[in-house]
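hey can u check if this looks right to u? its 199 residues, i copy pasted from the old doc so theres a chance i mangled smth
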Amino acid sequence: KESVARADKIVRALLNFSRQEKLRLQPDQLNPIVDGALELAERQMHLRNVTTAKEFATALPPVRVSADHMKQVLINLILNALQAMPRGGQLTIRTLTTRLSGAATLVSRRITDPLKPGDPVVICEVSDSGCGIPRERIARLFEPFRPTRPAGEGTGLGLSISRKIVEAHRGLIDIDSDVGRGTTVRIILPVALDRGGGG
């Protein structure tokens, strides 16, 4: 119960984000942050009979993050994935590095996005083998108070605020889903390029 309470506390901390004007971003490695989020959700996964597959790229370049806030986002995505697998299933967490494709269709993409095609990025994918989300609903998932779950099982604030946090990291968040086959949420963060100074 202690781990469940800790995870719940972290998710609720998402709601405090709107009170913060600016995140303190520092170069850091993403894999340990993802591991930390998985540890906090471990008991929830066990209770729901969900197995975990980790596919972490080695030697990832650093990203500029607020580790605590990124962990909050990941916890929220993991708990969303668990809710989509009430009878058990598999959670797959994948990290990789690539260059942003101009062909990517990102539901949160805006003209003012700082990431451009060709930019080096680090990606974290959170995939579940759950029920999936109808395509017509995906574009509205990031609207506040539009939960993906039935009434009474969530406010829908998690994804909206998660997107705000990712965008405060100059990143993007994307969702792919197939009804009956599962959902993948993708966090895309710019590589922390050396600009010849600290900070």
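The radius of gyration is 16 Å.
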